[in-house]
From TrEMBL:
Pfam families: Glyco_hydro_1 (PF00232). This is BglH_3 protein. SUPFAM superfamilies: (Trans)glycosidases. It comes from the Bacteria. One of its GO terms (cellular component) is cytosol. One of its GO terms (molecular function) is 6-phospho-beta-glucosidase activity. It comes from Weissella cibaria. InterPro entries: GH, GH_1_N_CS, Glyco_hydro_1, Glyco_hydro_1_AS.
Length: 486
């Protein structure tokens, strides 16, 4: 619907906030009956070299599960939000955030995933968290699956590759939608669902050693099952709680052409389509034609049940959420693996600086991607991850002067405001890692994102005490002035 009035800045109800994920933040990863998830297997740092996302074997998984008794292992599982949630939510209340994004660990509620009776201790934990958030007037933004599928489903049936996992997941979603009705308004289905093409962490599918096209066949089939499960969850939520909303969640990786050469522009268009394929299915409700060509090229055939296409078309999501860290570059001479590699590292753009981990920093790219997503889908958008992973040092005065993080956040928030003035319907912004937590790609603490520092090192040593960084007061003022004082 065309809007003739031009906004001048952030809407009054803009959801300023912060984001986390159970496997990187909660700790207590086997407490009170919780099962082991895919993320907890992947996250064991010393196994990471052998267990990068595409080369995990069942033997590696057995080793990681056996190692799980390693006393360091639990500390790598986050920063103990499980026991410190009241302290952390009080800090978020002081910060003044309107929304806090967290994920439910499926394995706290159904430890193996295939049980029919939920684990009450798991349900009760999130009840306490949501009740405390309600006291503070902080809206939960809840991710149903953040790389945290039960490892039991991988070991028994190769995870999401087996269609039976749809029913298990939708038993979990129905359980939590009913349990938390009235407490949670904003739900997200699968975190960065597009990264399922990179391997194990998203779908729990073990395909180590297979030829690339065979790996893609398994991954896209597993992702199809997630699309169906996401659509069923959307239908369930609308029936259980008509006042609640559910969104897709994409790792948005805007791809630029390396040169104005039309061959490079076409290569960038394809790379972008392989990213937007996921929101095409979840927001438009159907597979796009350009994927027929891609699937044919790779010999991929998606096995759909008769009812699948109708389920997808009838149950598109209510909003589109995404993470934004970088943009990438590709050219006609890049192979697909190299393009995927560029996505993981941010490619090579001579006009952009990079973080300590090589992720290229592109604030204007956020405005570009906001306008493109709004123009393509015309549904409300929600940035549910953005931030700077950096090494934070405690200075001689005992403080953490993270001006580099303030600069990064300011530059991206400025571009969000420009996009809103361009006419984009942007619901909110939950910066990633609002309180320091474990980095997913590195399994380490040293890649810090928060406005609150947590005393824990890469080996899991430390008091876990929390300390405000300089960026805490800065972000607090941004929120208090609704983004006018940057
Ligand atoms: C995204 C994940 C988050 C978080 C973030 C930062 O891909 O959705 O869970 O990990 O990346 O990346 P990292 O932790 O690897 O620095």
């Amino acid at each position: 619907m065309y809007k003739s009035t031009m906004p001048t800045g952030f809407p009054e109800n803009f959801l300023w906030g912060g984001a986390t994920a159970a496997n990187q933040y909660e700790g207590a990863w086997q407490a009170d009956g919780k099962g082991i998830s895919t993320a907890e297997v992947v996250m064991k740092a010393e196994k990471r070299t052998e267990m990068n996302l595409g080369n995990i074997t069942l033997a590696d998984i057995e080793v990681a599960i056996a190692d799980a008794t390693d006393e360091n292992y639990p500390k790598r599982r986050g920063v103990d939000f499980y026991h410190r949630f009241e302290e952390d939510l009080a800090l978020m209340h002081e910060l003044g955030i309107k929304a806090f994004r967290l994920s439910l660990a499926w394995t706290r509620i159904f430890p193996n995933g295939d049980e029919t009776t939920p684990n009450e201790a798991g349900l009760a934990f999130y009840d306490k968290v949501f009740d405390k958030m309600a006291e503070y007037g902080i809206e939960p933004v809840v991710t149903l699956s953040h790389y945290e599928s039960p490892i039991h489903l991988t070991v028994t049936r190769n995870g999401w590759l087996d269609r039976a996992t749809i029913a298990d997941f939708n038993r979990f979603t129905e359980t939590v939608f009913k349990r938390y009705k009235g407490k949670v308004t904003y739900w997200l289905t699968f975190n960065e669902i597009n990264t399922g093409t990179f391997g194990f962490h998203e779908t729990g599918v073990v395909d180590a050693g297979l030829p690339f096209d065979e790996q893609l066949q398994l991954r896209y089939q597993a992702l199809h099952h997630q699309f169906v499960a996401s659509a069923i969850a959307t239908k369930q939520l609308h029936e259980i709680d008509p006042d609640a909303q559910i969104g897709s969640m994409l790792a948005r990786m805007q791809t630029y052409a390396a040169t104005p050469n039309p061959a490079d522009v076409q290569a960038a268009q394809l790379a972008d389509e392989l990213n937007l394929f996921f929101t095409d299915v979840q927001v438009r409700g159907e597979y796009p034609e350009y994927m027929n060509r891609y699937f044919a090229t790779h010999g991929i055939k998606i096995d759909m049940a008769a009812e699948d296409e109708a389920i997808l078309l009838a149950n598109p999501v209510d909003f589109l959420s995404f993470s934004y860290y970088m943009t990438t570059v590709t050219s006609a001479t890049d192979g697909e693996a190299e393009t995927l590699g560029n996505m993981a590292t941010g490619g090579r753009n001579p006009y952009l600086a990079a973080s300590d981990w090589g992720w290229q920093i592109d604030p204007v790219g956020l405005r570009i991607t906001l306008n493109e997503l709004w123009d393509r889908y015309r549904v409300p958008l929600f940035i549910v991850e953005n931030g700077l992973g950096a090494v934070d040092e405690i200075a001689a005065d005992g403080q953490i002067h993270d001006q580099y993080r303030i600069d990064y956040l300011r530059q991206h928030i400025e571009q969000m405001r420009e996009a809103i003035i361009d006419g984009v319907d942007l619901m909110g912004y939950t910066m990633w890692g609002i309180i320091d937590l474990v980095s997913f790609s590195t399994s380490e603490m040293s890649k810090r994102y928060g406005v609150v520092y947590v005393d824990q090192d890469d080996a899991g040593n430390g008091t876990l005490n929390r300390q405000k960084k300089d960026s805490f007061a800065w972000y607090q003022h941004v929120i208090a002035t609704n983004g006018t004082a940057l």
